[in-house]
Design brief:
Blueprint lengths: L21 E15 L1 H4 L7 E3 L6 E15 L11 E12 L4 E10 L2 H11 L3 E11 L2 E10 L6 E11 L5 H7 L3 E6 L2 E8 L6 E10 L1 H4 L11 E12 L12
Parallel strand pairs: 5-6
Antiparallel strand pairs: 1-3, 1-12, 2-4, 3-4, 4-5, 6-7, 7-8, 8-11, 9-10, 10-12, 11-12
């Protein structure tokens, strides 16, 4: 039985003072979101989770950004292999303890070795793609074309114009960005991987172009119409803690 979802908070909730499992920075993010009926999303979530909803709707996110210097434990982040463009398709979930999180349906990245490690070691749906992130003043262009494992050629081209910083994000904007964990299935078991980072610096953004088939390639109905939310963030440093099972017991 699912407990009442935890409150949505723009600041990270207090957690155990443990060393990080992973460190990284997410930079120059474009957040695009479409509203979906929960029943379209529910079959794609890990066991023990259900779609997280706001006013009866859940959301599908297409998030493009630059991953920067992924590192293990307290070691310095890796400058080349740990730095690359990434675009992911993500869903919004809540587990039996009421913990809100995200579920990744696909994570396209441009470095083959990190993709192979994430797929084999963590069972994350990373895919190797040809990608770029270009910035000209307030214009940002994110491109992606999938190489392996497929469907080969699936991709996206997103162009946004960064707008003014939001003094106070709306309830929907907090719902879509203030996420402090990830739900995933590993070796047949559902796990929750907590993360922490500073409050998002969010900007309004204008979507100038969006050509994509990544959402459909991730097993979802293709989006209908423009996204209901378009945001930009210069980014945040991120720390991932040790994973926990849905019941809250940390894994060895």
């Amino acid at each position: 039985m699912i407990q009442e979802p935890e409150p949505i908070t723009a600041d990270p909730p207090p957690g155990p003072a443990t060393g990080p499992l992973l460190t990284q920075s997410w930079l120059d993010l474009a957040f695009l979101h479409w509203a979906y009926p929960p029943e379209d999303v529910a079959p794609l979530l890990p066991e023990g989770t259900v779609p997280d909803t706001l006013d009866g709707l859940t959301y599908v996110g297409l998030v493009a950004f630059r991953m920067h210097r992924v590192g293990w434990f307290r070691l310095p982040g890796i400058p080349y292999l740990g730095t690359f463009p990434e675009t992911n398709v993500r869903l919004y979930s809540v587990d039996e303890r009421g913990r809100r999180g995200v579920v990744f349906r696909s994570l396209d990245a441009s470095r083959l070795i990190p993709v192979a490690v994430a797929r084999s070691a963590f069972r994350l749906p990373y895919l190797w793609s040809k990608m770029s992130v270009r910035q000209e003043g307030d214009l940002l262009t994110y491109t992606s074309r999938r190489r392996w494992p497929g469907p080969r050629g699936a991709g996206s081209r997103i162009v946004v114009r960064r707008g003014p910083r939001l003094a106070e994000p709306t309830a929907l904007e907090h719902f879509l960005t203030a996420r402090w964990g990830m739900h995933n299935t590993f070796l047949g078991r559902s796990l929750y991987l907590p993360n922490t980072h500073p409050r998002w610096p969010l900007h309004r953004a204008e979507l100038l172009s969006c050509e994509e088939d990544l959402v459909a390639a991730a097993g979802l109905p293709s989006p209908v119409g423009p996204p209901v939310s378009v945001l930009y963030s210069p980014g945040v440093p991120v720390r991932f803690g040790r994973p926990a099972r849905p019941g809250g017991i940390p894994t060895p």
